[in-house]
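Let's practice the habit of predicting before peeking. Look at the sequence and jot down your guess about where helices and strands might fall. Then scroll down.
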Amino acid sequence: MKELYLDERGSGPGVHALIIGVGQYPYLTGKYLEFDGYSDLTSAPVSALHFMKKLVNTDVAEWAVPVASVDLLLSPARTLVNAAGAEVSVADPTRENIQGAFDDWLERCASHPENIGVFYFCGHGVQAESQVLLASDFARFDGSPFMGAFAYDVSRDGILQFGPPTQCVFIDACRVPLTEQVRQLNRGVSALKTADAYGERRCAHDLTLRAPLFDVMEAPPNIAGYSDGVVSYFTSALTRALDGQAAVEEALTGEWVVDNQTVSSRMTGLLQQEIGTGTTGRAVEGAKIFDRKVLRRLHTPPSTKITVSCEPLAETGTLSCTPNPAVRAAYEHRAQDGEPWEFLAEAGHYMVTAECERGLHRVGPKPVYAAPPTSYVRLELTR
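Done guessing? Here is the structure:
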């Protein structure tokens, strides 16, 4: 069995992750696919490593069960030093290596009924009748290029049957359309796992997310600390979601948690924030049938951006936002030119008050529940 980046398996349940970042495609020349003159994806291995670091980091939140194993496939292949200080050889994500790592991952996921399985892929993809993801050796065999690829949708159905009850599947890949000539070669592309015709679905708690149908999923122009490529928009939004921007406060305990439902529902908005536009044009695709499952528990409440606006617009005045209960200092703002008040705050319950135009208009205190990633408060001023 190949060496894992992290292996802390015990007798209890755990998170078992397979993380794939395909950044180098030595055989992808444009004969089979048009990629605007480029084939390599410098952001893919960087995004995969960024996701892995967020997965194992416990500074912000803990997974519902400990992270037990992490397997990495990256191209270009490399040697990494893990948290224990040991050197680990990271294999090239060829089709054969992906299959072997996938089979081992399924076996680890089956070791306990409370395990959480995490599958992450970042690289090139194409769209035919269904989505196909490209391994690093795509087009190695002339005339049979798709021997270096796998059918994602068919594989996902197989994981639903043979994977653990709690599954997180994240696909950060473009879906370039195929020409009719190449579409003929795509027929019969193999899956990592095929579902049985009448098999029972084991997955009850599903979090499946894949990037919207764009020609190319871009990466931000620059992120400090990365010299060879940058983290993709999708992966950046995903890690923000898991770190608390998709958190919800549990009513009974007051604890902030991240569950599969909130991540699924907030990913489109978080991706829009990363891209910096009002809309992506398409929503992040996710699972449609699942039961709620808490995935992570935060150590402290997450942050949220609160926007307070007044109606009618007030040229001058004082706005305040006080935690409820008042365990921290209030946020205060001097209104100018009628502009909305925007600020970052700890998520939770607040009382908002306003006194504008030298006391002519007053409102509040108004109770507000501020949840991530953004909260909007509209105050109707009265004399």
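How did you do? Confidence is low (pLDDT under 50) at residues 221-227.
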